[in-house]
Design a protein that fits this description.
The complex is a heterodimer of chains A (about 150) and B (about 500). Chain A is built from six helices and two strands; from the N terminus they run αββααααα. With about 150 residues, chain A is an all-alpha fold. Chain A has two domains: about 1-60; about 70-150, no CATH class. In chain A, a hairpin with a 2-residue loop joins strand 1 and strand 2. In chain A, helix 1 runs antiparallel to helix 2, helix 3 runs antiparallel to helix 4 and helix 4 packs antiparallel against helix 5 (about 115-135). Chain B is globular. The chains are: A mainly alpha (about 150), B mainly alpha (about 500). Chains A and B meet through helix 1, strand 1, strand 2, helix 2 and helix 3 of A and helix 8, helix 10, helix 19, helix 20 and helix 21 of B.
Chain lengths: ~150, ~500
């Protein structure tokens, strides 16, 4: 827990540094008609650096510690995350509907070990429902791929 | 009494068949969202926001507020039947709600929870009906310094009253403001923190942040903790409802106390959670049988639910009168107002009376429809949690992705959603509060402009925030909240030595 706490605070200090540097570049003082663009972010960056430094000190001083996350508890988290990332990558070539169908099917089979009929029902039913609600009722377009083109949308 | 007339006018708008249908739809979706893990009020509203772009604004806000009421009711269902608080302010409801359900009295507990929610909400709505126009009138005289002072107050209350680590609250706020300032500076036309990347020029949309932080982050947390729903049967029927209603008048004082605490805490940001705990603690202290609390006392359900709902509704007051949201959900609605082409703030009352009074009237109808619907359909809503989590998890992820994409029709937003999801997961584990981050992201531009305009008015002197009477008073309270975390330990030590001070009530 302490290591992650320190790492997060350090990352945020770095971010604060970037903010301060960029604000200095565009000017933090008084322009011709008021404070310049960098004025507000500059002070935000400064506060962020100071507060995160204090958090680092707090974390350093804290003696007792439990792990941030154990291996076996991290496992299900990653099992959600990386297929989700894969789905987002697939949206561009395949369109959102096909990508989400694949994602639902994959996750149900891999984690839930559901039977194929249930998988087929959800993997086809969920995107279809989304399609009806978003594309036809509310006219909100989603990214589409070759399948939708073939079907004429 | 123009107030009453306006309200009647509002009812004429809220009680059209289409708007009633929208309210019913919103409450049903909202309750489902409230029951599902990983989907709370804020991201439910965020995901559905794109669907409202083509609606008339009044129907759109009715849909979103109804969704919010539904989510509040839904939180009670999971707390009582599954011992899973859907929202932080439902935690206190589990203390007595779940033991009651274990004893086979789930129906009674749920009836009490819904009824107290309704009573709490109604109390706050009545107060909003009368106070909102007055507050808006006062706020019309506010200039940039007053608005900036109110923003200070908003964020200081997260630090002073939010509980948790005040430094981490501060970092969350600042991070939200930093993310808000990425992109084009609308005052000078300069690009900030884009580093030559075109994708960063548009900045970060808070709706995507809400969906990622709350939706994806929450689902990651719940799979880590191992989703297992050991639900108890609802045991709900008309007889149980009527019998419970006969008992409830006994707790009138708890209702009144909870409603007052809820309203008072609720119109300040982050107030619903402390309000529910405070109400529970007071109910226990004034009870004749404090030892029964935690083992299944009906009053222990009534107290936090009344306060939480009163606070949830009260969070709408600053949103419609000042344009400053009191909760992440209200923040998303505020974003909606801007997208629908309305300027949030005190001018709404004079320029868009149909919208404001339609909204206020819909709070009455929405909550009434809501309480009747949840009472009637509890078993249906509870059944949702019996869907296997291997179906629920990808479904929620897909829904979140769709919601993020629909905001601007841009792929990059889905990536941001995933990143925000991981950030939300890590922040939640490290006790960085997420609500102030979202609020800062929403209010970033407004706060910065108010600050700059104030400084232009004063030729760069910060004294403008203390020299104007209203701004000065608000700033003073804000400063007090900011230093409260420093004062509290010191004050405790002082009290530890001195004889115990009289109990504050």
């Amino acid at each position: 827990m302490r290591a992650v706490d320190l790492a997060t605070a350090s990352l945020l200090i770095l971010l604060g540094g970037v903010v301060v540097a960029d604000s200095l570049r565009i000017g933090i003082g008084w322009g011709t008609d008021g404070p310049r663009s960098g004025f507000f972010p500059f002070w935000l960056g400064v506060i962020m650096i100071l507060a995160c430094a204090a958090i680092c000190v707090q974390a350093w001083r804290r003696p007792t510690d439990k792990p941030f996350v154990t291996r076996e508890r991290l496992d299900p988290v990653l099992k959600v995350l990386w297929p989700a990332t894969l789905m987002v990558i697939l949206i561009t070539p395949l369109g959102l509907y096909v990508a989400s169908a694949l994602y639902v099917a994959f996750y149900m089979r891999w984690v839930g070990r559901h039977g194929w009929p249930a998988i087929a029902l959800c993997a086809i039913g969920i995107p279809l429902l989304v399609f009806v609600v978003f594309e036809t009722w509310f006219l909100v377009p989603m990214p589409k791929g070759p399948l939708e083109a073939w079907l004429g949308y | 009494m123009t107030g009453i007339e306006n309200l009647f006018h509002g009812f004429q708008i809220a009680v059209t068949p289409f708007n009633l249908f929208v309210a019913v739809l919103g409450i049903m979706l909202g309750t489902i969202i409230g029951v599902l893990p990983g989907l709370g009020g804020a991201n439910g509203v965020a995901i559905l926001l794109p669907l409202t772009f083509t609606m008339p604004p009044t129907s759109a806000i009715i849909l979103l507020t109804s969704l919010y009421w539904g989510a509040l009711f839904g939180g009670a269902i999971t707390s009582v039947l599954f011992n899973i608080p859907g929202e932080p302010w439902s935690v206190a409801t589990t203390f007595d709600g779940y033991p009651l359900a274990r004893q086979g009295l789930g129906g009674q507990a749920l009836t009490a929870a819904f009824t107290s929610s309704f009573v709490g909400a109604l109390f706050s709505i009545v107060l909003i009906t009368f106070f909102a126009p007055l507050l808006a009138e006062v706020a019309l005289k506010f200039g940039p310094p007053e608005f900036f002072a109110i923003q200070l107050l908003t964020f200081s209350s997260f630090i002073g009253l939010g509980g948790g680590n005040p430094l981490k609250s501060l970092v969350s706020i600042v991070l939200g403001f930093v993310l808000a300032s990425v992109g084009l500076d609308i005052v000078t036309g300069q690009l900030r923190m884009t580093f030559g990347l075109v994708d960063l020029m548009k900045g970060f949309d808070f709706i995507v942040a809400v969906i990622g932080l709350f939706g994806i982050g929450e689902i990651l947390l719940s799979v880590e903790e191992g989703l297992s729903f050991k639900g108890t049967p609802t045991g709900m029927n008309l007889r149980v409802v009527l019998d419970t209603w006969k008992v409830l008048p006994r707790y009138t004082r708890t209702f009144v106390r909870g409603a007052f605490i809820g309203f008072w805490m609720g119109f300040k940001p982050g107030g619903a959670t402390p309000a529910s705990f405070m109400s529970y603690a007071f109910a226990k202290r004034f009870s004749k049988h404090p030892e029964r609390f935690g083992k299944g006392e009906l009053e222990g359900v009534v107290a936090p639910e009344t306060a939480a709902h009163a606070a949830g509704v009260a969070a709408m007051l600053p949103m419609i009168t000042l344009g400053i949201p009191g909760s992440p959900t209200a923040a998303v609605m505020l974003g909606g107002l801007i997208i629908w082409g309305l300027q949030p703030g005190p001018l709404l009352f004079t320029e868009k009376p149909d919208f404001v009074w339609g909204l206020i009237a819909s709070m009455y109808t929405g909550n009434l429809i809501g309480v009747l619907m949840v009472l009637a359909f509890v078993p249906f809503f509870a059944a949702i949690l019996r869907i296997p989590f291997a179906i629920l998890t990808p479904l929620i992820v897909v829904v979140c992705a769709i919601g993020s994409y629909a905001v601007h029709n841009s792929m990059i937003d889905i990536w941001y959603m995933l990143i925000f999801g991981v950030v939300g997961y890590v922040f939640k584990k490290l006790d960085y509060p997420l609500a102030p981050l979202v609020l800062a992201l929403v209010l970033g531009d407004l706060a910065e402009n108010a600050l700059r305009q104030s400084l232009i008015m004063s030729q760069g002197s910060l004294a403008i925030f203390v020299s104007r009477p209203i701004a000065g008073a608000i700033t003073a309270v804000a400063v007090f909240f900011f230093v409260l975390p420093v004062l509290t330990p010191w004050w405790r030590r002082l009290r530890g030595i001195a004889p115990p001070a009289p109990q504050q009530t």
